[in-house]
Specification:
The complex is a heterodimer of chains A (1109) and B (415). Chain A is mainly beta and 1109 residues long. Chain A is 11% helix and 34% strand. The longest helix of chain B has 29 residues. The relative contact order of chain B is 0.15. Classes of the chains: A mainly beta (1109), B mainly alpha (415).
């Protein structure tokens, strides 16, 4: 079993890819008409001057769906909530026909404004009860939640319910969105978390007010935890005020899910909050208290967090978190609906103590070590528009959980034209808007129904939208939803609550696809004590090469609860090896020999008592106190203030970190580059492994430059290592700034450096990279120096240089003679030398932003010629950050690893659909206007917003008086043919971090690295042999925390360790096994013996010890 | 041609400004060039209008076509519409105004050829004025680094609810009309920031706070009347509504129209009043904006919420730029100097221009009274400290008087 547990995602990918999939009968889902199902439910909204989105924040949030077998007849029943009308209970009468028994059952639930519903066996009698939330609509209105206790069936099998919220202590009057019943103290009864939404509005959320509001409790709006006090068989729920769950006025709670995120067998919580109100990761401290770990464990969260779900999507045994937000998938709606992005507002919120929040869906992959990697964009799940309910489940029974998303909003309030112009038509009497005026306005807000989304999980982390293929089409304003196998045929059907439309019942046809149909396993739980449905239990199904974890969490998605019968798709797996159940508190059971296509019942009574959780194997790396003192400080600049249309910031490229023995004591020493205003440092290694800074007056004198790249080599042929430092950066440098001059420091043999004047030609270029090699075979080291950018003139190509050494450490510019094409190659970020053709002359590999990885073959010292197309399979133009040349496949030939932007970004680029940058001074005002264009739904559009365009080019104002007109404009709609004449165009066709392996013929082939290599932008690559197997392994580091707000931070990388097989194949080692938990923006690695040093922008050098043999 | 047609053009321009949410300094600039085009067109046929070449900075010699203009007033109107049409973002919307003007001429029996000639002559002058406008440096602003709020406690930072970025931080780099430079009337530095009780700044803060706590209905009405915020945002959940008013400059252009109408001023005089006013407003904004982004002072809303009362809100929405000087104080005082020059110090009128925004008419005994009220309204509204108002008035007076000196030596009075 242990062996199975360790099989990672890679094995699963192969399996899923190999198995093929059955041809669907029609589509995976069929929408059933109400005439067949008898489910005639609609959540119809009657708007008036009080009931509309202007007056009531929750007006268009719709209702939920709760599914479970309320009469214990083996068929799943469906309960809907209606905001204003009666809630409805439909008994399942088999064959997907239902009977409305609301009145007989007594569960209509009176009053407005009804919201989330959940089924749970609150009193532990084996019958599902119903908890129905209400939100306040007006001061004094009855918003007490209702609890319908199941009294058992009558003769017709119809269950009767009695409303007993008050008796149970659960008639809470807060403005509730949903309740989550779960056992937080592992005492085998259900406790309850109540998620509330503050319906009053704050119009002045500045820094001080946020702080204050965040610490102001609010009984009507904050989160509330109720503990079930079972006394003499009577359940009474009491408010637990010592749980350390924050009850705050700044609460716009929309959903919560209780899952064991850290696998300690105690239920944790994820809470979604709308607007700037922060999301929470409450980790159960096992002592009836929780601790919010969101800021620590999540790099960022959704901003307008809607519904959420927690499930293991990559089958690694760890629950992952998905939250929904409201970023549209298409650029047109993005540009029409989005407000101005303001870095000031974002920073202000962070200063006030809120999490970093960005407007898009987030998929937080659980690394199992107290960190999560947010990969929603890489997964393809980040942009689904105004979304409410996410439901992660295996809809096609292939063994991987897919995603269903409900969508839609009755009125597009965020339509920018509407926002800017609707006020014009208001009749303001003495500056006060009447309710009637407001209602008149509300009705004029453009309404837009959107389709729901369904995504097929392809390999554990990549999803493809499958709406058309799976039959999820047609537009609606959908809110809550739930899944269950309504017809007991072995696949999950879907039920959706729609605003102003009939509810959707989708029949899943996965099991009707003939002989090839994938198999399944249904699991019913019988928990002990007063938790008969086993809420909180974790069931893992092991098949050959695959494990699947499903937690018994009833409340999922948005305002809804799903079936208590757990569902597993098995794909075409030959059989189930075993099934393990872990009950809350830790009792467990392992069942071998379970048959597929059956319903398995697991009983806690027969489980083994809890055993201590086994100690994990020691990781490959162990964090250690850094031997390097100090912080690699960064000067705080915002490049977008200077050139607002730059795709990415260029001022945070340091620190560079290089090592060599500078004082002749045989111990490697360090040079750490300094940002503008901070001097670079030379640190010499002490006997004990510590480092001591040697004072360097010469470096101090040049602190005004930014050290972007550096190299140790013997420039003047005196037997010691001299230091070349490339001055780079963007910052506030002028294009021809004297501080951009590169520098050569000569070593006195003892590690003291002095600047050697006039040995370099004038090079006022912001340097991106420096690479040393004897180009002309005279045995003296020469240089290639790549120019990164012209500060203030991005993306015009800066100068790059080939510098030849005269043997005395004097360098002259030979670029024009040796490689004229290199002079203005473009924005070069990385370069390296290696002999690629075996002629003993070093050849040059370059890469850069909007540049290909390029091979320059040395013409025996007489020139460098671009032979990229001969050596590489394609010209992969990317946003390359770094290059590593090293032999990975033991053939004696250098292989190439190139760090790129990665795939976890809003930017997509391929050969067919490249990212492009078109630039020119379009309005002839002296400023370069770079226009980033990206493909969206098959066409290329400028990515910038109307406001950004008008800010940059004021003459565009007359062309785009409205957002609507701009939203669908292509480049040629914005600029005339004459204006585009003379514009330059850069292209990128690949954003993947890439490995090129040498082949016997000398050419290279591209090999894909594991998907984890694409989680973030890669700036540092280190080769090493961490497991001492003689095969080179790779370590990738990166992240970017200074992107524009619309891109958000890239923070999903924590040091990606790839285990090499010696043939150029690599496998990702999960973070909990690698032991690496590197936060922040990694820019450099240095490996000294068994110590790994990590250079991070604006942070201390971090250190890890490599596990010894 | 009725003189009221000039006010009509101003009003059409204002409609577009409302649609485009044109910020106050930029609005003044649009008015200035459009009025200048009209003025210059008429001046070619009306020797009572002084030539501006040599009086306004870098003002070009405008080509004068041969022959007599048969309808110079009409040509002036076309020149204004054409200039505004090119300058304003939604300027194409003025085509309808030009068409309406043409129609009304036809209905009045003016021969089509006369109208066509007027239009052509107006456009010719407009083209020259537009070239002059293009050289004023405004379009170079996107070449400058975007504004970053100054770090530190006493400095401006974006204000709720929308936290808009700073408006026109480089307006002082635009070429002025009559000033030597935007810094010509640099005011004394504001009262130094000091949050400690008992400091001069604390006293300013307390004054705004206490005024707002004890605001009388009359003061509230004053604040509302002079709000002149081109775009206040109301937010409620995902719902955001932009509430728009005339900018301060547009308000004074409207007052000029009212005054001219009341006096039944002839066309040329009306045009001159509007032109001089627009030019002075633009320069006044430059002066004021120069200081705003020199001192970068904190707004009362930010300061009071931080140091006095975290729940306090001004009754007017704080506009998105630094506090010192008060723009309304500067430009209203400057405008009053201009209008007083033309109409005298005791010219009473009723300001009906805010009717469209649901505000009642307001009676004033003089322009200076109105300007003083506009200035103090910013204190009532909770968006300015006292020193920004009084120093602003001083600066406005200086700009207005300088402009009158530059433009009217020797004095011309077309009446």
């Amino acid at each position: 079993m242990r062996k199975l547990l360790r099989l990672g995602t890679a094995a699963i990918c192969l399996q899923a890819a190999a198995c093929g999939r059955p041809v669907p009968v029609d589509s995976l889902f069929t929408l059933l008409p109400a005439t067949e199902t008898n489910i005639g439910f609609r959540n119809d909204l009657r708007e008036d001057k009080r009931t509309n989105g202007f007056m009531q924040a929750t007006a268009y949030m719709g209702g939920g769906v709760a599914i479970g077998d309320v009469n214990n007849d083996g068929l799943e029943d469906v309960y809907f909530s209606s905001n204003q009308g009666p809630n409805k209970l439909y008994l399942n009468r088999g064959h997907l026909t239902f009977e409305d028994v609301t009145d007989q059952a007594g569960v209509a639930a009176t009053g407005v404004w009804k919201t989330g519903i959940t089924l749970a066996d609150v009193n532990g009698d084996g019958r599902l009860d119903i908890y129905a939330c209400r939100s306040a609509v007006a001061p004094g209105s009855n918003s007490r939640n209702q609890l319908f206790i199941n009294q058992g069936n009558d003769a017709r099998g119809i269950p009767g319910f009695r409303e007993e919220a008050a008796a149970y202590g659960l008639a809470d009057p807060a403005a509730s969105m949903q309740a989550v019943f779960f056992d937080y103290d592992n005492d085998h009864d259900l406790d309850m978390l109540l998620v509330n939404y503050n319906t009053s509005w704050f119009s002045t959320l500045d820094e001080d007010f946020i702080r204050r509001t965040l610490t102001t409790p609010n009984a009507a709006a904050g989160l509330k935890l109720y503990v079930n006090q079972l006394d003499a068989g009577r359940h009474y729920f009491a408010l637990d005020s010592t749980s350390r769950i924050r009850n705050t006025s700044l609460a716009r709670g929309l959903a919560a899910t209780a899952s064991d995120l850290n696998l300690d067998n105690w239920a944790d919580l994820y809470v979604s909050n709308d607007f700037e109100a922060p999301d929470y990761v409450y980790l159960n401290q096992q002592n009836r208290t929780f601790q919010d770990q969101a800021a620590r464990q999540l790099g960022h969260t959704s901003l307008y967090s809607m519904g959420n779900d927690i499930a293991d999507i990559n089958n690694d045994g760890l629950p992952d978190i998905l939250t929904l937000d409201m970023l549209p998938a298409d650029f047109r709606r993005q540009k029409l609906l989005m407000g101005d992005e303001s870095v000031e507002t974002h920073d202000m919120r962070v200063r006030a103590g809120l999490n970093r929040q960005f407007m898009r869906n987030m998929l937080q992959l659980n690394n199992g070590d107290g960190t999560f990697s947010e990969v929603g964009q890489l997964a393809g799940l980040s942009n689904t528009d105004w979304s409410w309910a996410p439901l992660l489940a295996d809809y096609d029974n292939d063994g991987l959980k897919d995603l269903f998303v409900t969508n839609g909003f009755l009125h597009d309030y965020t339509n920018m034209d509407f926002v800017k112009n609707i006020g014009d038509s208001i009749d303001m009497r003495h500056g006060i808007i009447s309710e009637a005026e407001v209602y008149k306005m509300a009705r004029r807000v453009p309404s837009s129904k959107i389709t729901n989304y369904i995504f097929r999980n392809q390999d554990g982390v990549s999803f493809t939208q499958a709406n058309a293929a799976w039959g999820i089409t047609g537009s609606s304003n959908s809110n809550g939803a739930a899944y269950a196998d309504l017809d007991n045929d072995g696949d999950l059907d879907l039920v959706v609550n729609n605003l102003n439309g009939p509810a959707f019942v989708y029949r899943n046809n996965a099991r009707h696809s003939g002989a090839g149909a994938f198999r399944y396993l249904s699991v019913k739980l019988q928990g002990a004590g007063h938790n008969p449905y086993g809420v909180g239990a974790k069931v893992t199904v092991y098949c050959p090469g695959q494990q699947q974890l499903v937690e018994q969490l009833l409340t999922r998605g948005f305002q809804s609860s799903v079936s208590p019968v757990l569902h597993f798709g098995l794909g075409s797996a030959s059989g189930i090896d075993s099934v393990r159940v872990q009950w809350p508190g830790g009792a467990s059971q392992l069942l071998p020999g379970v048959k597929a296509n059956t319903v398995l019942t697991l009983r806690e009574a027969t489980a083994r008592p809890p055993r201590p959780i086994p100690e994990p194997r020691p990781p490959a790396f162990t964090a250690m106190a850094s031997p390097v003192p100090g912080i690699c400080a960064e000067n705080d600049v915002n490049d977008f203030k200077r050139q607002p249309l730059m795709p990415a910031s260029l001022s945070y490229s340091g620190p560079c970190l290089i090592s060599a023995d500078v004082n002749g004591d045989q111990l490697p020493d360090l040079f750490i580059g300094g940002a503008q205003g901070f001097a670079g440092r030379v640190l010499v290694q002490q006997a004990g492994g510590g480092f001591r800074a040697l004072p360097q007056a010469a470096l101090l004198a040049d602190a005004g430059s930014e050290d972007a790249a550096a190299a140790f080599f013997d420039a003047d042929h005196d037997g010691d290592l001299d230091l070349y430092v490339g001055s780079g950066g963007y910052d506030t440098f002028l294009p021809d700034d004297a501080r951009l001059q590169d520098r050569l420091y000569l070593n006195d043999g003892h590690g003291r450096f002095s600047r050697s004047p006039a040995v370099l030609p004038p090079m006022r270029t912001s340097t991106g990279t420096v690479a040393v090699a004897d180009i002309n075979g005279d045995s003296y080291p020469d240089l290639f120096v790549g120019g990164r950018v012209i500060p203030g003139r991005y993306p015009e190509p800066p100068r790059s240089y080939v510098l030849l050494n005269d043997g005395h450490g004097r360098f002259t510019d030979h670029t024009a003679q040796l490689a004229p094409a290199l002079q203005r190659l473009g924005m070069v970020s990385a370069a390296a030398w290696a002999d690629l053709n075996g002629d003993s002359y070093p050849d040059l590999v370059t890469a850069g932003e909007w540049l290909p990885v390029q091979i320059w073959i040395n013409q025996r010292g007489r020139g460098l010629r671009d032979q990229t197309t001969h050596y590489l399979p394609a010209r992969h133009t990317g946003w390359w950050n770094t290059l590593l040349l090293t032999d990975l496949n033991h053939d004696g030939q250098a292989d190439i690893v190139a760090g790129n932007m990665g795939l976890n970004t809003q930017c997509k680029a391929s050969e067919a659909e490249p990212a492009e940058l078109v630039y020119k001074d379009f309005d002839d005002n002296g400023a370069v206007d770079p226009i980033l264009c990206l493909y969206n739904q098959g066409r290329s559009y400028p990515y910038l917003t109307r406001d950004e365009l008008l800010d940059q080019i004021s003459l565009m104002r007359p062309r785009f008086p409205t957002y609507a007109r701009f939203a669908s404009a292509t480049l040629t709609d914005i600029f005339t043919a004459a204006e585009l004449q003379g514009a330059s165009r850069l292209r990128a066709n690949s954003l993947r971090t890439q490995c090129y392996l040498s082949t016997p013929g000398g050419r290279y082939r591209a090999v894909a690295l594991p998907m984890q290599a694409q989680f973030t932008s890669v700036f540092a690559v280190q080769s090493l042999d961490y497991n001492h197997d003689g095969h080179p392994d790779l370590l990738l580091g990166g992240n970017v925390s200074h992107h524009r707000i619309r891109f958000g931070n890239q923070d999903a990388g924590f040091g990606c360790l790839l285990t090499g097989d010696g043939k150029g194949g690599f496998r990702y080692l999960p973070q909990r096994a690698s032991g690496l938990s590197i936060r922040g923006d990694v820019r450099s690695f240095a490996l000294l013996n068994n110590t790994l040093l990590v250079g991070r922008s604006g942070a201390a050098v971090q250190a890890y010890r490599v596990r010894s043999k | 041609m009725p003189a009221a047609r000039i006010g009509w053009v101003v009003d059409r321009m204002q409609q577009l400004m409302r649609q485009d949410i044109t910020n106050p300094p930029l609005a003044a600039r649009f008015f200035a060039y459009s009025m200048l085009a009209g003025y210059e067109t008429l001046a070619q046929s009306d020797s009572s209008l002084m030539p501006l070449h040599g009086r306004l900075r870098d003002y070009p010699r405008i080509p004068r076509p041969a022959g007599q203009c048969q309808a110079p007033q009409l040509a002036a109107l076309f020149a204004m519409l054409h200039t505004a049409g090119q300058l304003q973002p939604s300027g194409s919307g003025l085509a309808a105004a030009a068409a309406a003007l043409t129609d009304s001429c036809r209905n009045a029996g003016i021969p089509a050829a006369v109208v066509a000639q007027a239009r052509a002559r107006g456009q010719l002058v407009a083209t020259a004025i537009l070239a002059y406008a293009r050289q004023d440096g405004y379009n170079r602003i996107s070449n400058y680094p975007r504004y970053t709020p100054t770090a530190g406690p006493g400095y401006w930072s974006p204000t709720p609810p929308a936290f808009f970025g700073a408006v026109e931080p480089y307006f002082n780099r635009v070429r002025p009309f009559v000033l030597d430079s935007a810094a010509q009337f640099r005011p004394p530095a504001p009262v130094a920031f000091d949050s400690r009780p008992g400091s001069g700044f604390a006293a300013l803060m307390r004054e705004v706070y206490q005024t707002s706590c004890t605001l009388t209905p009359a003061q509230r009405a004053t604040a509302a009347f002079w709000d002149c915020n081109p775009f206040a945002l109301r937010e409620n959940g995902h719902l955001r509504i932009g509430l728009k008013k005339m900018s301060p400059g547009a308000h004074w252009m409207a007052i000029a129209s009212i005054a001219c109408r009341q006096r039944k001023a002839p066309f040329a005089h009306t045009l001159q009043v509007h032109t001089v006013l627009a030019v002075v407003l633009t320069d006044a904004f430059m002066c004021c904006w120069d200081e705003k982004y020199r001192s970068n002072r904190i707004r009362p809303e930010t300061a009071i919420r931080r140091y006095l009362d975290p729940t306090w809100q001004p009754i007017l929405q704080t506009p998105p730029f630094p506090e010192y000087l008060s723009g309304h104080s500067v430009i209203s005082t400057a405008a009053a100097e201009v209008l007083t020059h033309y109409f005298g110090p005791t010219y009473a009128y009723t300001d009906t221009s805010e009717r469209a925004f649901g505000l009642p008419d307001r009676r004033f005994s003089s322009f200076r009274q109105a300007a003083a009220e506009a200035a103090i309204s910013r204190l009532y509204g909770g968006i300015h400290f006292r020193d920004a108002i009084t120093q602003g008035q001083d600066q406005g007076r200086q700009v207005g008087q300088l402009a009158l000196r530059v433009l009217f030596t020797p004095v011309t009075n077309p009446r």
